[in-house]
Fold these 4 entries.
Entry 1:
Amino acid sequence: MIKKKRKSSSSSGLMIGLAALILVGGGSAFAFFSMPSRNPDAPSNEKIAEGVAFVKELENKSTESVQASFKEERIKAALEEMESEDFNVWAHFGNIVMMGDSRTKEYAHSEFVESRRVMAEDGDTILNITEYLDTLQDLHPDFIIMQYGVNDMENYDVWPTVDIYWDAFKQRIDRVQEVLPDSTIFVQSILPCIEPELSRLACRREIPAWNEALRGYCDEAGIPFIDVTALAEQYDSYYEPDGMHFIASFYPFWAKKLLSEVVTYEN
């Protein structure tokens, strides 16, 4: 007699196994970042029972349903892990490259992220992006997070409108993607400014309009857009006296926001 094969596919079995691993606490939700679990404690009986029940539920679902359920649980587990007191956000930035201006530069200046993975200098604009192509190729990061705009919008003669600016920005994003087709590129919104910077330069009041336009262009081009406006507003006491830069204490919150967006997008 020939035994009938189980209906569940090998990919379904893999997803179920990974789901059980995360749910019972046997592995970190950030395993796909090639980071080891930081929690050596054995899972509780209650957690094991929860994982077994979840696996049994998945066995009766299609591969597509299993994958969707697993992705949802993996995102949930990762975001919950990020909220733990002992979570070290910097330990998960090993395959991320940050590109931007002076506000991004602080990631390296405060030694949060190794300097070679922070491609940013004071006054940098999107015109500087292609200067880093060789270094990007050497690092070959999984993720590239770009944060430009605050200096760019001052150059009225070069980019008098956000539409013209985006055309130039997109050309450079495409160039990076040509060099690193396997890397995922994220574009951040322009971090808002507060007083006295708002009064120093009138263009700072145009940041919300620029961000709205950039979001639309990114959506149209299929480029993941990370809006950090609400985060900056939530931590408005973390601005430097100039009203544009941030003190070092703001960066762990900013980094968690970026990491959560990467986790959600990749899953």
Note: Residues 10-85 form one domain.
Entry 2:
Amino acid sequence: MPKYTKWVLFFMAVFLLFVAINIQTGWLFVLDFTLLSFLFTAWIFPKIMTYGEIRGEIYAQPVFEEENLDIMARFKNLSFFNKYFLFIEFEFFKISLFLPSLPKKKTVELSCKAKAAKRGVYSSPELTLKAVGPAGLFEHKKKLSCKGRIVVYPSLNPFPLPAQSSSPVPLLSDKGVFSGKGDGEEFAGIRDYTPGDSLRSVHWPSSAKTGKLMIRETMKIHPFLYTLYLDQNQRRTGYSFEISVKQAAYAIHEISKTGNWVQIFQKGKTELKSLQGNLELLAGIQADQAFPLNEQIKLYLPFIQVKKDLIFFTDVPERFISESWVFIEELLEMEIRIMVVFSGENRTEASRLLSSWLQLKGIFTAFGA
């Protein structure tokens, strides 16, 4: 119903009241009272329905951008009267839920699907509670803070990634017995027993065949640890930065599948996380640093030098082909493996020159779309 309808009805009621007073006609008073009562009810009803405390909780499994998000919402009416015909608006996901009734001191659960269009970590999301009066003449809204969180991971932007498999290293001192987070074992061969070997490593079929104790030799699996450096310079807010985030998400996803580890460098520190933990970190990451990536790397160069597998995510402005990248020579001298991933598919002369220069240094480069 058009918004001006309520004003038309209001001025009509005022006019009828004026006429009724002047001509003293009883049925006009009744008609005018009925119209005014209807307008008052339509105005006060949404205010009453949104009055009082309503608590909300919201739950959803993490998903990637552009995937469907299954949302479970729970609302509890803590006021002293029932509420009817409410709408719950999820502004971020552009959806609205209809709540026919919400009894006092009761909890109601609703479920819905939404399109996860943009990455982010949304803790205690703010919803809008709306009630509409009869005939839709009036409505009243108020903000409703909810407990819970919704996590939308960045989508994956593929690029050539020469990720390495976990590296088997001969196990010498432990003699077949070891343990460690993220480590595994691989069969290396059979050898004779020597004093000090653990009986747990005895290869009994070979021992029975040869008539003497034989030891099962193993190799310890050492995962590679990749450290990702994402250019979070403030000037990158927008498309270029989002591409880098999606590239980093792809790298984390693919490297984790090979059994290797990934950590993200952020604000001067790194922390080893699971695949889900790294993706959640990327879901909420922002371009909020004062300095570009090359300046950040120079600042933390002593810390970076202890890392062995580095992946830089940035764009390709011309100033990157400058002496400010001489620190790469220092990293290469430390036998550090480096990869540079550029956002954007446009190949400018500057990007081609930089890519060629890096490849001459033995650094793998890739471009994302």
Note: Residues 167-222 form one domain.
Entry 3:
Amino acid sequence: MRLPRGIDVGRGFAAAEAVIQSHRCGPTIWRGVLVAAQAATILLTWKVWQVRELPPLVPLAAVWQIDMALPLIASLAVVLVRPPVGLALHTSLLGWAIIADQCRMQPQVISLACLLWGTCGLPGGLVVARSSLTATWLYAGLHKLTSPIYFDRVGPWMLDAVWPGAAPGLALPLALMVAGTEVALGIGTLVPACRRAVAIGAVTLHASVLAVLVWRLDWNREVWPWNVALACAGPLVVAPWQGPGLGVAWAMAARMARGLATVVLLMPIGYWLGLVDASLAHSVYAENTPRAHICSPFARQNLRDRCYRQGVVVPPAQRIFIAVFRGMGRPGEWLEIEDPRLVARLRGTAFRTVRWTEIEAAGKAGPGP
């Protein structure tokens, strides 16, 4: 491609890549895959996006409450015909929905929205999408590798799902292989020589996850479309990725976009510091997140399991657990919270007992002077 006179080589290659990425068939197909995956995810998690009584809404701020599923799906239709306008609309609606209810911080929905920005034809959108893809794989693996519970519980569970009756000693190698593959995919996206292998590995990994979830377990349906999209990301995003790091598009991206891409790459570190929720840190199937049980003198029930049976996946965060319990609990019940992170032990919040009567009384009393 001939470059305009007066433009430096770095910016010229970045401009060339932006043009190619915005006009070739790959991004168009990729946009369709992501729109379909996001729409399917919203349909599979329909109750999360509706105004509901149980599990209760957990707003970040007092905003107007409306059902958000149909507006979000309608904005995806706009994405197909006017990508920049549709993406701005979809992102705004998603942000409003999360402010209205923190239970809508669903990692797969946020991930798909970030990836969609890579199809808008702008260099800034491309680097944000790439940083999100890199962070998804990298931190998903790191969370597993740093979680003892992952090796104790998830490893044997995966082995039983993949190979029933296999020798228990194979659980550790399988767990290491899965986590190590995710880390390798994340790092490999930033290294040009590794991207062909990453593209193949992404298809293999997520096709395997789908095979286990769909055909073997028929479980966790709300993440099926996300895994389809991540499998397609290999040939449609990683394979055509040019240049080291986030690509030569980085040079043409606006400063704000580069800053946002950097935040996306580094923000998950805040989870181990107690600053970022697991839903924003790519902690999936690592079992290193807080857990809560609703207890009474006669029973002990996992709060997230109880909400899941009612159609809502509650993000694993202590403040959200307490807010949900306030709307679901009854006199005589209490909430037991366990947080496996080191930062929780240092703060003295690794093990907490919260009685419903206490938080109900605190809520009625209102804020102090």
Note: Residues 291-365 form one domain.
Entry 4:
Amino acid sequence: MIRRYIVKGHSMEPNFHDGDKLMLSSLFLKPKSGDVVVFSSGGRDYLKRIAAVTAKNNFTAVGDNKSHSSEHAITRKQIKGKFLMKY
């Protein structure tokens, strides 16, 4: 399934900017280090990069802009989609 997502915030600069429009795929099976994903946590959606695979179906996700980002421990079930392209 293909989804649309609008970037909110500055945690992924300089690669993604506030207001950028992205296409995501939810049809990927195995997230890997370096993938950019959207995940849900605490009722909010976040765009982050997978920094590490910590265990089966567990990941560490961080923003590219270290001064505007924090580290998140997430599970595969929280991931809504993987970045495909800007449009």
Note: The mean pLDDT is 93.
